[in-house]
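Repro:
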Amino acid sequence: MSNYPVDLSVKPEVKAFFDPDTNTISYVVKDPASNACAVVDSVMDIDYAAGRITYGHADEMIAWIKANDLTLEWIIETHVHADHLSAAPYIQDKLGGRIGIGDKIMIVQDTFGKIFNEGTEFQRDGSQFDALFKDGDTYMVGQMQAFAMYTPGHTPACMVHVMGNAAFTGDTLFMPDGGSARADFPGGDAGTLYDSIQKVLALPDEMRLFMCHDYGPNGRDIKWETTVGEEKAHNIHVGGGKTREDFIKFRTERDRQLAMPRLIIPSLQVNMRAGEVPTDKDGRPMLKVPVNGL
């Protein structure tokens, strides 16, 4: 792991915000040496049936940041989520900060730009975001160095973000008893996902891992923090020495049984635009439903 600047001596304060509607966990990550912070994988609320967007979850995070007198420097998206909408631009408008995502966002924009029949006005160059990260890129949150690891497989643009002794996995990994995320979306690949998970599990055993989702398997309480060591030993999909071939067979068969996420249609349209809701020719917020397109 010499290519990645791991520093376990830096221990950021991590505040989690759980959204029960989408089983998403968003985070505020505070630099231990300053009042600087980052937000990871925020959520914008949507009542899809009513076509109504609200910001209760984001407002909770904003209130906590203000109450603790923090300065928001980064708004990180681990990938283009298919199960919740990002509140990045809303949070940026209230608190500032730069919105960052992996540079392979351009692949996702090209793929779904075609599926949603977006016109030439939809830019497919990642320009909706303030920063596009490549594998190993570093950035600062106050005095804390963070870095991005390229971890495709769930989507072509997934990244794990490491800040001190805390890594934010997006959908690359779930809790040990939750296993892994699906790999059957356009651009996903089970073998690639296995390889990406091995990159994460090559981090030091003591590295704290923070999940983007948890569904409380077998009725347990919702959890979101584990360690590399626990995942290596106990993850039901990849732990204990499970092979790449075993994982591909299991993941492929499992994905065939899964329905599309409830919010995939609005999520993709919004998230590939860095959280902005698309508009129609008259400038009104409007979402499309491609029939038999996914």
